[in-house]
Every structure is written in structure tokens, then in C-alpha cells.
Amino acid sequence: MAFDALVLTPQDIEIARSPLAGRVDAETYVLGAFNPGLTRLPNGNLLMMVRVAEALRRPIRDGHVHAIRWTAEGYRLDPWPLQLVDTADPRKFMMRGGGWKVMALTSLSWLLPVELSADGTRVEAIHYDRAIVPAADYQCYGVEDARISRVGVGKGGRWLMTTCSVSPERHSTTLYTSDDAVDWRLEGIVLDHQNKDMLIFEGLIGGKYWAQTRPLGDLYFAYPPDSAWRAGPSINLASSPDALHWKPCDRPGIRPHAATVATARMGGGAPPIRTPEGWLSLWHGVEPAGVVGIYRTYWSLLDGEDPSRVIRTQHEPLLAPAPHLTAPLADLMYLDDVVFTTGIVDAGDHYVVASGEADLACRVTHIGKQTFA
């Protein structure tokens, strides 16, 4: 890999310029600046749409743990008695009892546009004035994990950005659109509760928009004992006439393989990008371990006309967590063993790939196209 480095860390974010500054009645800090959507701007530079998780400096005080919540009247702090919750995970707390898994967050996420050089190796500008923040009840706990796709070329082309919007109402996928990747319009919810990691293909198939999706649930039916596949979360497919109304594909997409536990849990990574052979899909697999597992990036090549058909894949990871990159940030670390790829751009003989490292920072990697031959 010719270039593989962290290009943005929490230390690069000016908390005083946060859209929450002066609007939350408590001290906050940047827990992480990570999971960046990626695209190329009309001026040739790259745009990362970075998830900034802004957390309470002291979430636990006076016998309560607190969550930040957006409302139309302003941001609120909700106190929960400590005896009612489990605070083992620094990112969230779980409610005890009740019969369902119910949680709240100690941070609120918003999206920060960060302009990189054309090769993605350095920051050119951070556009605080164009930050994307919660704007509806279904986003009251934050806007997370942007994925950006450019669909079409010239005047007929536009940018589509999917995000996860978090609230007690639902954990949904929301869509933003733009004609220039600078000014974004919120179109609303396009996938309902707990259908995460929606990635819109960078191009039409049969005149339709296509997307990878990843619905979650607490129950999965077993494959036969001799099956090549393992039951659990998988990457599904859907198509749409307008990018707003989506029909699930009848055929499955990328499924966890029974031969390895490294993909026991899986989901989409970067939006599928067109190649001469088909669609290149970068996705994440999670090996069970510790609190959150070990996240790695894998790849598959999908048929150009039928993306449910996998032409080629590889069980070895394309990217793995890189402790040497985060070593200088040891005092900021709260997770390890996580690389979560969220963006890809064609750069001629290689791809520029953007990932979140350790739910902390933005990692950019140049990967030669021969890797996928």
C-alpha cells in the first residue's frame, strides 16, 4: 500500500465550532471523528463526510447517566438512574429488564464535511458552516455513518448520501441528495427500523437504482447443517425507480460463510463501484471477541447486471485494524480491533479508500487495482 495513514483525528476538530457549542448544558468533547463517507467534488478534491461523535465529558453525575437528545426547541440532557442501566460500554448504556434490548447513547453524532486533496492524503479545509445536524424527531439521538454515491454524469448526475438516523421512534436509514456534494437536502426516511448500512450503487442497473442493505433482527432461521452459509446478519439487495421507494430483491446478496467465524456478523462498507468486470463491493465482517468484536474489511466482485451473483471474493481481509496508526492516540482510545470502511473513489491505477479506525479517526488507504484481479 503506497499510502495508509490517519488523515483526521479528534484532535483536529475545533469543539468550539461544533453546531452543539453553547447549546448543551454540560461540557462536551469529541469522542471520535470517524466512518467518513467519501466522494470526489467538482473541483477535483475529495470530500469526506465525517461522523463526529460529540460526548458528555461527565455522563455520570449525581447518581444518573445522561444522554443528549435533540428537540425542535433545543438540545436536552436526559438523566437515567444508575440502578436502571448497564454502563459497561463507554459509547452507550443499556436499560435493565423490560423484555427488549433498549439503549441510549452518551454522545450525539453529527456530520462534518472535510475537504481533502485530490489524492486524499491531506486536509485542505474543514467546512463547519455546512455541518449536518439532527433536523427531525427521527434523528433526535444523532445522524451517523454517511455513505456517498455519485449516480449519473454531467448535468443528469447527482450525489446520494445515506445515513443512519437514531431515535426512540426507529433506527432508520435516511437519504440526503445534492447536485454538487456541497449543499445537501434531507429527503427523509427510505428504510425503516434497524435496516443499517444502506449503500447505493454508483450507477444504474436496468434503469433502476440499486442498493445493498442490512436488516437486523434477534431471530434467524438455520441453514441446513451441510450448507456453505451461516445464519445471521447478511448483506441484502433492493432496487428503486427513484432512490426513494425501495423493493427488496428476491435473491440474497452476500452471506456469512460457514467456513469462517471472521464474518459471523457482516454488513456493507463502501458503496459498490463499477469496474470493467462488475461491481466492486467492500464490506465488513466481525469476528466475535471482546465487547464489540474484531472488525475487518473484505471484498467481493458482483455481476454487472445481476449483483446478487458473486463473481469473485476472498476470505482473507483487505484491511485489518492497524494499532500502529492509533498508537500516538493511546490516551484517546476507548475501543480497538475495529476498521470500518465507508468510502471508495477511483483514482486511476488505484482506489482511495476511506475507513473509520477504532471508532476514533479517519483512515485513508491507497489500494492498487491489481489487488482485485
Automatic annotation (TrEMBL):
Question: What are the UniProt keywords, alphabetically?
Answer: Glycosidase, Glycosyltransferase, Hydrolase, Transferase
- InterPro entries for this protein: Glyco_hydro_beta-prop_sf, Mannoside_phosphorylase
Q: Return the Pfam families for the record.
A: Glyco_hydro_130
Superkingdom, natural source? Bacteria
Give the species this sequence originates from: Sphingomonas aurea
Question: What GO terms are given for molecular function?
Answer: hydrolase activity, acting on glycosyl bonds
Q: Tell me the protein's name.
A: Glycosidase
- Is this entry keyworded Transferase? yes
- Similarity comment: family membership: Belongs to the glycosyl hydrolase 130 family.
